Structures
1.
Amino acid sequence: MASVKATNITNLDASPSVLADASEVHGSVRVFKDSYEASSLASGSDITVARLPIGAKVVDIHVKADALGSNATLAVGNGTTADKYIAAAAMNTANKLISLSNDGKIEAIGDEITSTITNILVTTGGATTSGTITTVVYYTVS
């Protein structure tokens, strides 16, 4: 059995110690919560659900919705990549929750907002969408 250390612990234990970025160790998590009531929203539409400051690091994203339709899907991304955080997931059952931590892309955890693309978008797919969509974006800033 091995005993190993992750990157930030290795840096903190080094001599001399290498300080971690405050957004990764002992940082404060901030929240951007919003909701949207979709009514016959066309497939391929996007909903701006958060606007983060430059330098923010995305820690997690939760999306919970009504049953939006038999073929309705939601993806979470930014203005460049529609599924940067969470690939399209079926949203055909009530109170379904998708999240970056459970359903998302591993490389997107800790993604830093580095440009003028600061919006987080939910994109509809598969069918016309109707129902409540609630999002919570968790992020840190240095």
2.
Amino acid sequence: MSNADMQAIWDRHLITGWVRDLPIFVVAIHFAKDTKPELVRVVDGWREVVDDPVALSAYLVSLNLRRCLDKNADGTLRFSGKGPTRAFIHSRCKRLSSCLWSDKFTAEQIVQNLHRFKWIRLGPAAAKETAKNRRVDQKFDNRDRIFVNAKRRDKRTDWQTTK
């Protein structure tokens, strides 16, 4: 299979995982079952398991797929298979997450136009940017605010008056 075919399969599984609210590692298992079945073993006739999760991560890194990998501190790529698919997508592409939550488009339409969404790879640079944004938000949120309690001219709704 070519890399474009692999990317299309991954994208389809990623959006299906969002729709079905699956963990991202389960999405990776479904992808491996379609592309390299020897990594996945079926137990009890329906449950798919991976005996070696490191081999699955190494397989995904070797494919160098977009919308799949993050960066380590030394710049190498890694697969982060933790958490739900919805959190995985939201942390890397907020516009795609908003589009999926809006329910205005079908999953097939989103898969066809997935290349239009900007996807970031999480890593040290993204963490520094997030920390910088938090510091800026804290700086502007912690300003001293002055509240002026102006005296009302009308006392008709004042409890002391109506009593």
3.
Amino acid sequence: MKAEELKKTLRPLVKALVKEAMQEELSTVISEIIKQTAGSTPIVERKQPTIDPKLQQERMIAKQKAESERKKMLEEISKKSYGGINIFEGTTPLARGGEISESRSSTPSAAEPLSGVDPHDPGVDIGGLLKLTGGWKQIRWKD
């Protein structure tokens, strides 16, 4: 038998044996790693979203402009409607309204899901959701 014929015959056999041996070793290593990490908590890297300084400044300017326009409109409305008197000055929103009758319980019902929440609670900021998804185009329904 020539060397070339021997090479053609033995090469696939050796390749299959090496592959089988590596798979056995790899499965052993993976199972040991899984056993060791099963009880530990995963490490999660949290990155703050980076906002372009130019975009951030534009947003701040737009917010200030909108706030000043809002104040200006409220002042105009107040002057025209109530002779310049702020009728809600010094008031705060109610945390919960009064009871209409005794048939209503003090626990929140399905019709009043936020009845136990403080009116001054800032809630959850969902402003960054569109950045994560890539905007409204990514959210729309697929046909």
